[in-house]
């Protein structure tokens, strides 16, 4: 990698890290895991920088993050499946000052990783179903069913929050 490539890479990383870290956090539900995910994806992207810098390096890095996250939750699922505590609805703040974003984050963390990933890709990243299926390596039908299950579960967890209708 020459000096020009290093400078462009440094500029890209400095400019895009906050947005990419937000996506990583939404995918993992944990700050430390998000940092690990971002660093792992970046480590896989840097060797390809010379060819990526002329195309879509951010898109490539995001795809690596999504696929890396899918691999992580598949490995976790194989090790053991553990039920999360507190399966009931998330209770609103008794003072009436419920912060919907915080409640949504808490609810997202309680979804299975596959459902959380689909919601992040569909509604946070605003990707169409076909692109989500491509990124995750599954069918459009799988994306639709995971989205439906995830939104249904969010409605159970957040009964007082009006969720948008599932869009296709």
Automatic annotation (TrEMBL):
Keyword Ribosomal protein in record: no
Entry annotated with the keyword Zinc: no
Domain RNA polymerase sigma-70 region: 18-79
Coiled-coil intervals, chain numbering: none
Origin superkingdom: Bacteria
UniProt record, GO biological process: DNA-templated transcription initiation
UniProt keyword list: DNA-binding, Sigma factor, Transcription, Transcription regulation
NCBIfam families: SigE-fam_strep, sigma70-ECF
PANTHER family assigned: ECF RNA POLYMERASE SIGMA FACTOR SIGM, RNA POLYMERASE ECF-TYPE SIGMA FACTO
Protein name: RNA polymerase sigma-70 factor, sigma-E family
Species name: Micromonospora narathiwatensis
């Amino acid at each position: 990698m020459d000096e020009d490539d290093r400078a462009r890479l440094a500029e890209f990383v400095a400019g895009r890290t906050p947005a990419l870290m937000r996506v990583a956090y939404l995918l993992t539900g944990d700050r430390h895991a998000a940092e690990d995910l971002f660093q792992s994806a970046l480590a896989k992207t840097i060797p390809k920088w010379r060819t990526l810098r002329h195309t879509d390096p951010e898109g490539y890095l995001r795809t690596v993050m999504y696929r890396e996250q899918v691999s992580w939750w598949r490995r976790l699922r194989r090790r053991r499946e553990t039920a999360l505590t507190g399966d009931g609805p998330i209770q609103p703040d008794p003072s009436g000052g419920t912060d919907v974003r915080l409640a949504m984050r808490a609810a997202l963390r309680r979804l299975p990783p596959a459902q959380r990933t689909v919601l992040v890709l569909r509604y946070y990243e605003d990707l169409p179903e076909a692109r989500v299926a491509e990124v995750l390596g599954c069918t459009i039908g799988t994306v639709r069913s995971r989205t439906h299950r995830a939104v249904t579960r969010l409605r159970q967890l957040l009964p007082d929050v009006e969720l948008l209708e599932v869009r296709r």
